[in-house]
């Protein structure tokens, strides 16, 4: 029988071994790793909200008002009022009839897609879709069809030969490449073939759109996306996942989604921080932070704050990350299976919490790699 030690040795030999490093984060954008202070270019806290006094105050107040735990599943006695307030706010912002929230984005997808799709149906996924979307599609028992990244011709071909309920699944901002999906064209195709569209806005919410709601908002397409999904744990500086859709779909998910039904609702303080963050997105401060983030992304000629530097070989990517560490920057090396084999890379993420000086220092260090 395979022993864990053998698998670990194998991973090590292929440059694919991973481990957890304890980190302290006293002050954005600084992280402390083994006593060393580094500028953090690896978090998804795009707006720098995770230590914002307004979010901390909202979470603290909720701890006092509701306690530390929801104590049961939403369907038993865990459906605290604050979750309903959060869901109403999300539905309004998403121009949808209703919304449902979860402990995180991963379990949102893992719960919703299998509730929606089953054997005899067809899930059509972008090749670079996030692990939770792929795993959810597999779990559903539906037939899986993959199209090459953003390849509309292939997507259309797959749509012409799909069976049962058909769901297109893609992301607005791809998490490891920082590029966008051709959303307007995908919406046209889904209409033409009568398919449903599931859009994961995990890296777009807070970053794109007039009020920071993501790519669908930016393109005025929110009411044409059947399922708008995202996380409250990245640019919103909190934690949680959401799905916005029609009232009937949401009612069906309340009845069928196993990660909602059989799991203790997340702590109410998490919902409070999310509500505060959503309000902040639309405040002058939120608009200012989003603007600064856009200026920073523009300075890297990138449409989003995710900037990949493709290196190729696993060990070279690790060495590049190590070299940046020595210069005072935390930039992770991303390897298979997070990304396709042979495309190991540095993944730089920008934040409104950075200063122009942080960015210039990083650019100098990158030039020396
Ligand atoms: C991070 C991420 C998720 C999962 O969200 P969490 O709240 O972190 O669990 C889902 N989809 C994409 C594209 C992501 O990048």
Description of the structure:
The chain is α/β, with parallel strands linked by helices and 369 residues long. It folds into two domains: 23-46 and 305-367, Alpha-Beta Complex (Aspartate Aminotransferase, domain 1); 63-281, Type I PLP-dependent aspartate aminotransferase-like (Major domain) (Aspartate Aminotransferase, domain 2), CATH 3.40.640.10. The protein contains 15 helices and 14 strands. The strands form three sheets. Strands 4-10-9-8-7-5-6 form a seven-stranded mixed sheet, sandwiched between helices. Strands 1-2-3-12 form a four-stranded mixed sheet. α9 links the parallel β8 (196-200) and β9 (227-231). α2 (53-66) runs antiparallel to α12 (268-281) and α4 (81-93) runs parallel beside α12. The longest helix has 16 residues, at 284-299. The relative contact order is 0.17. The mean pLDDT is 97. It binds pyridoxal-5'-phosphate (PLP). The site of pyridoxal-5'-phosphate has 13 residues, from α5.
